[in-house]
Write a structure and sequence with these properties.
By secondary structure, this protein is mainly alpha-helical. 76% of the residues lie in helices and 0% in strands.
């Protein structure tokens, strides 16, 4: 396999791992009440796991490096935190259809940001794949309820924009330097969530079940972020976010799988839209090679 193909496979796996996240949230006790403490624990879990990964690969010198935070790392960490917070508030104040539609804009937003700051150009193949994925998302949310507050819609867009910008910051870093963005993303998420709890005078109590689920979700997020960051070296920003849309399709499948206990049966529109998104991801993953095509014809 070429490095490009390996990167595609790694990012696809990261999306599949992330797809278990909604399943965790659906098993929480009163998730709307315990949003902020859940984010504090999840952020700390992400920080600890990524730090362990850096410790294994770089040794104790990483402790000195992590103190020397640069501008790109700080921006990337804040963008990731924005994505975390925006998603939680969006899904809480509006319907899943609205949030899903906002997330489908990620590849376009990432491509625009990367073009402005990194001079990355998007190919016709990638653009067509993005448009097909957007159509697939529209099919999925068609006839769904688009009710909810403007605040929820705005937060969904902010979440999408945050993850797109985070993906671009990964592209601007090399080797293990990009993983420091993940560490600070977890730290910022925990600190900001804790600050909001104090401002809102919210209790620090959280059911034991939710603590374990938050740690589990943090592990899922951290594992996916590690793979996503590894793949970012070989893929453009638009491609990265495009491939991560498999999280949406996988999340719907796990919620339906009877053995996992949620038993949410998807509508025919959801199934068709999911298939269209998978086709778009497959199109985006295939690297057109004129010489290879000529050899096949011969």
């Amino acid at each position: 396999m070429s490095n490009h193909s390996k990167a595609i496979l790694v990012v696809i796996v990261s999306g599949l791992i992330w797809s278990f996240g909604p399943l965790v949230v659906k098993n929480m006790t009163d998730p709307k009440i315990y949003q902020l403490p859940y984010l504090v624990i999840r952020g700390l879990t992400v920080t600890i796991i990524i730090s362990c990964y850096l410790l294994i690969n770089e040794g104790f010198p990483f402790l000195k490096k992590i103190i020397r935070i640069d501008q790109t790392t700080a921006i990337g960490g804040m963008c990731l935190t924005t994505a975390f917070l925006g998603f939680i508030y969006s899904i809480s104040y509006t319907t899943a259809a609205v949030t899903l539609f906002m997330l489908a804009l990620m590849p376009f937003l990432a491509s625009i940001i990367a073009y402005i700051f990194l001079s990355e150009k998007i190919s016709i193949q990638n653009l067509i794949s993005m448009l097909i994925a957007l159509i697939g998302t529209i099919i999925m949310v068609y006839a769904s309820s688009f009710s909810g507050s403007i605040f929820g819609l705005v937060m969904g867009f902010i979440s999408s924009l945050g993850f797109a910008a985070f993906s671009v910051t990964l592209r601007s870093k090399s080797d293990f330097k990009k993983f420091y963005i993940l560490v600070y993303g977890g730290i910022f998420c925990a600190v900001i969530s804790l600050t909001l709890m104090i401002i809102q005078d919210q209790s620090f109590f959280i059911p034991l079940k939710n603590i374990f689920l938050s740690i589990g979700h943090g592990t899922i997020v951290a594992t996916g972020l590690i793979l996503f960051s590894i793949g970012s070296k070989q893929l453009l920003s638009g491609e990265l976010t495009m491939l991560s849309l498999l999280e949406v399709v996988g999340g719907i499948f796990w919620a339906w799988l009877p053995i996992l206990g949620i038993n949410e049966v998807p509508s025919i529109n959801t199934i068709i839209g999911g298939v269209v998104i998978c086709i778009a991801i497959a199109m985006n993953s295939y690297r057109f090679d004129k010489k290879r095509l000529e050899n096949l014809i011969r």
